[in-house]
């Protein structure tokens, strides 16, 4: 029972309420020993029919409110986007991570009912969802552990690292760490932590280490790149569960919430914290945040279903907080999700301040925050209320996967189970002419698999001339309204004819090593499908871009000019090289070289007495010995 009392003491208020409200008469069943017996146990507590009924009931109760909210916005998907159909899932999307192959790993717990109703926790229901086909593959955790309420983020190679999980009906944490290999769809155990964790955050660091914070133990731990763990013995600090942490441009880890005090952690050695001022006056419990630009974090909602939002700039010595527009809806238990253009989408939540779930207080409309204007735009309404234990994740094609909700005591009491998902197509993918048709998209036809900090790289695209924005978006890892690692990194770039040359930030803290989605956005605001790119400091430097040929033109004599014999014809040429220098210019009469000139202005006075027609050209040679010949000029020399 000590585990239970510890849990209640450290839980968010709403979750403590959930435990209190858990059906008191629910006896813990016999101890099943095999996954098959667990499966049977799930069905005893919620039969397949009950599960369908709950799912249906949640959808029905959602539908009426959803229709009202949907009617409040325009019907044109070019303005408000469009939600796809609700599809049932094999798991509740409580935890969701995008994989480098473009699929989504999601897991929940050991069954549909509240986790505290199950006595044994030695597996986890998990699925890999393929958004391209809508199909699922069962990848349940078979290491003997339940990773419900773990913290997780991607290792630099794109595999997923999980810290902690759920040990028992008292919601104790586990000491285990896991790694999910997205290539083989397999789980392996990593090093054990010093203490069990439940509701920890995991933050990828610039040096490839993974920071593990909270989940009840106040001493952070760090997973080294060799898989062993170290403890930050001088950085013990009591923070809320699932703390909001992101590497800032100075390399320290910035804490933006959910409570009010802003802080930075230096994870070197034993670790040290620095505290700053208050972000604002609200404890944004079950609010959300998004790192939408270099050193810039948007926080919105949370606490008593606040509609307020703040922008925090972590680029300087002291974090700077500025207000931005409020959302149209107060929200708690919602998700903020980066979109492919660097704007931010808010989905789901409740507007009544309910701790976990209010079936009558769901927010169905999405809202988009534009970083350029600081304004929110109300968008289309989704069909199912998404509150406690829901996630919203950016897919590589620019759509957003909104899934889950449910699996808690309160959820059971109010009949909330959203074991399903819907996919949102944002307005940027539609034409703006009211036709409701999808817009043509810019296309990335080539880009390197790996880039390094401080280097430039080539993106081939037939749409180069129209591209306005190039960005890297880190793969998402979401749970409990918290995004553990996703950030938008805008790239400076130059346009060529069919290529863009983009620059990876030299400061490695801006784009911590790992897998990112490379997205280009055209002048209509339409994003490309993402190309996965690994930012890898250990990679060899990219090959130099291919040499561009010089340009040359023969400016004198004029084409068709006539001279009287004997003549002195002035040959004049201009030449340039876009990526080097012009070594020399040769003048030709037909195939015969008349002279060569190694410095501008390129001139030659050609003396000729024989009458006839002559074809003249100039040929430029650049510093890489690549040549370009000018358009020919024809002249006539006739008798005096
Ligand atoms: Cu939870």
Give a short overview.
With 640 residues, the chain is mainly beta. The site of copper (II) ion (CU) has 3 residues, from loops.
What can you see in these coordinates?
The protein is mainly beta and 640 residues long. It contains 6 helices and 48 strands. The strands form 11 sheets. It has a 6-stranded antiparallel sheet, with no helix packed on it. The longest helix has 24 residues, at 48-71. The protein is elongated, with a radius of gyration of 31 Å. The termini are far apart. The structure holds copper (II) ion. Copper (II) ion binds at residues 149, 389, 480.
List keywords for this structure.
640 residues; mainly beta; Immunoglobulin-like; six-stranded antiparallel beta sheet; 48 strands; 10% helix; elongated; disordered N terminus; binds copper (II) ion
List the helices and strands and how they pair.
Blueprint: H1 2-10, H2 13-21, H3 35-45, H4 48-71, H5 77-80, E1 82-83, E2 87-88, E3 95-98, E4 104-107, E5 126-130, E6 135-138, E7 151-154, E8 160-163, E9 177-181, E10 186-189, E11 200-204, E12 210-214, E13 221-223, E14 229-231, E15 244-247, E16 253-257, E17 261-266, E18 272-278, E19 288-293, E20 296-300, E21 309-313, E22 320-324, E23 332-338, E24 344-350, E25 365-370, E26 375-381, E27 390-394, E28 400-404, H6 409-414, E29 420-425, E30 450-451, E31 456-460, E32 467-474, E33 477-479, E34 482-483, E35 488-491, E36 493-495, E37 499-503, E38 514-522, E39 531-535, E40 551-556, E41 562-564, E42 567-576, E43 582-589, E44 592-597, E45 602-608, E46 612-622, E47 627-629, E48 633-638
Parallel strand pairs: 30-39, 41-48
Antiparallel strand pairs: 1-29, 2-29, 3-4, 3-33, 4-5, 5-6, 7-8, 8-9, 9-10, 11-12, 12-13, 13-14, 15-16, 16-17, 17-18, 19-20, 20-21, 21-22, 23-24, 24-25, 25-26, 27-28, 28-29, 31-37, 32-35, 32-38, 33-34, 36-37, 38-39, 40-42, 42-45, 43-44, 43-46, 46-47, 46-48
